[in-house]
Amino acid sequence: MEKKDLRFLWQTYKPYWPLILLAVIGSVLESGALAGLAYIVKNVVDDVFIAKSYEKLYWIITVIITLALFKQIGSFLKGYIYPLVIYKALYVLRNRIYKNLLGAVPSFFRKQNHGDLVSRATTDVERFGEISSTIGTNVITEIFTVFAVVGVLFYRDWKMFIIFLITVPLLAYALHFFGEKRKKYSKKLQEDFSDYLQNLNQIISGFEIVKLFQTDFFIKLFRRINKNLFKSQKKNRFYDVVYLSSVEIIAYVAVAGIIFYGGLRIIKGEITAGDFFSFLGGILILVNSLQTLQRGAINLKALSPVIDRILFALNIPQEEDRGVRFEGLKKEIVYDKVSLNIDGNQILKNINLKIKKGEKVAVIGQTGSGKSTVVKILPALITEYNGEVLIDELELRKYSVSSVREKIGMVSQDVFIFNDTLRNNLLIAKPDATDQELIEALKKAKADFVFELEEGLDTVLGEKGSRLSGGERQRISIARIFLKDPDILIFDEATSALDVETEELVMEEISNYFKDKTVILITHRLKLLEIADRIVVMENGKIAEEGTKDQLIEKKGVFYRFLTISSN
Ligand SMILES: Nc1ncnc2c1ncn2[C@@H]1O[C@H](COP(=O)(O)OP(=O)(O)OP(=O)(O)O)[C@@H](O)[C@H]1O
Ligand SMILES: [Mg+2]
User: Fold this and answer.
1) Is 321 part of any domain?
2) How far is the CA of 522 from the centre of ligand 2 (A)?
């Protein structure tokens, strides 16, 4: 274990030291009682079986019951309190990771593998808990047991103990050799299982598309994955059994050796039968403890990479929320020589754009020309741009991010619906809204279809809103904007999935309701350009033209071409 791992363990578990102490006391009780039982075997054999003393019998039975009681109290403390401490720690870790994910700088998610992030927050945290649990219940307890039992063994017959020790390296070697093999195949098994899960997930989430293509293809792919899984399971089991048998064979040899040597010493009168059985009992406990320790050691090796993965999730670069509070647009938004380069791709080139308070600006342009990127800069979803974006003469980055986001409402191209009730899907825009407000917002967004849902606002919308049509999802997304009632509005193809008539009704509501607000509207529909005071035409990351509709028509440039193609 490295220093950073120890530091992480220390920081994670330090707050629970009183509980941990209690659990350790449990471990000591259990170990002590076990060693005591091995110790008392001598008296059972010598005083009761051989000397046939009633008095000793009563006494020994009392001792045995007391020891058993201690052992159970110990087992309870250890078996309940270590896991309890771990659950508490996991609870805190999961909260911290979730908070970190939400607070991450947006650029982080663009670079990161999403599945991997989820696995850090789930599987790795749970795995950390499992390994910690092994440390507590196995490693700590068994170390005490080993010490206590070795003490008894030494006391009973140190010569025989030394003979036994000779078999330990042999045992250790076998454990190591087969342990490595076992580890290799158990890792392979995990990987094959994860392939299997991933494949299943993919066909289930994409079932409609999958059905449209060759299902045979998937079946073949799956057969191979499944076969690998089967082979891994088989191999894994084989080495499991070999591992256990090898340990047992060595244990039998050791026991046979002890019986042989011990037998000789009993015959010669050097030790009593009680010494011998007490010793044998101790050895059995010891072998068992060593095996458990070995398993614990294998687990410990896995701890370091798991901690690394958790630390990564805990150290996600966080957005800072400092700076001037944005109270709403007073004058204008100015993009001054803004360019953006992501991984060597020049996505925005020298964007100069001025939007006055209350102005309605439409942005049009070919797919991939950078429209969404330009607007995503405003709510600080993209921050790595060059040049300046001035809001009322102050650079955007000088404002506190949360205050800017509070005042900006954006209906993006990708609608985000989460698998919860319609009510909760709306409340993210205004957590304290009443049902009446929600219904009004839905009405304004022309989302009347929801009133026919049997469970109304309590209807669960399904994963990614799978119970809704594309246009229905868009209207829920628009209803959120009415609830949020922002100062600057951005609509990025917000109504693209609606029929022309519904689209116009929705846009009419929007224009009326947000009459005095600043609006940026990205659209492919010519009809919607009518609500705009000005049109900005984008091409290849640049602003190709801008002006009123008439000015642009007169210019006979990109917009004019666009217009003639569309009207044909
Ligand atoms: N996170 C990203 N990393 C790298 N390139 C990106 C990223 N996001 C967008 N791009 C690229 O930037 C360009 C502009 O994308 P953008 O989404 O702004 O286009 P758009 O004009 O909104 O297109 P559409 O009309 O299809 O929505 C595209 O070429 C796209 O591939
Ligand atoms: Mg776009």
Assistant:
1) no
2) 8
